[in-house]
Amino acid sequence: xxxxxxxxxxxxxxxxxxxxxxxxxxxxxxxxxxxxxxxxxxxxxxxxxxxxxxxxxxxxxxxxxxxxxxxxxxxxxxxxxxxxxxxxxxxxx
Length: 93
Description:
Helix content is 0%, strand content 56%. It is an all-beta fold.
């Protein structure tokens, strides 16, 4: 099935289009990628920055097969122009 990360932020420059790069790491430390992944990342997602408090779902990652995501602690990293903006660990039961 799919993971759909949600980004919450305070935008200071509204109306700007940016591309965020996402790295998603499995519990064993390997990065989840596909044949369409950009080099060095799991996937990229284009968003329009809005002024003030805002949230944005960053697409989805996975596939239609149940059980694709095994139990364990995963980590997601959000990157912009090669700069790490945020990282978060989460657990799948």
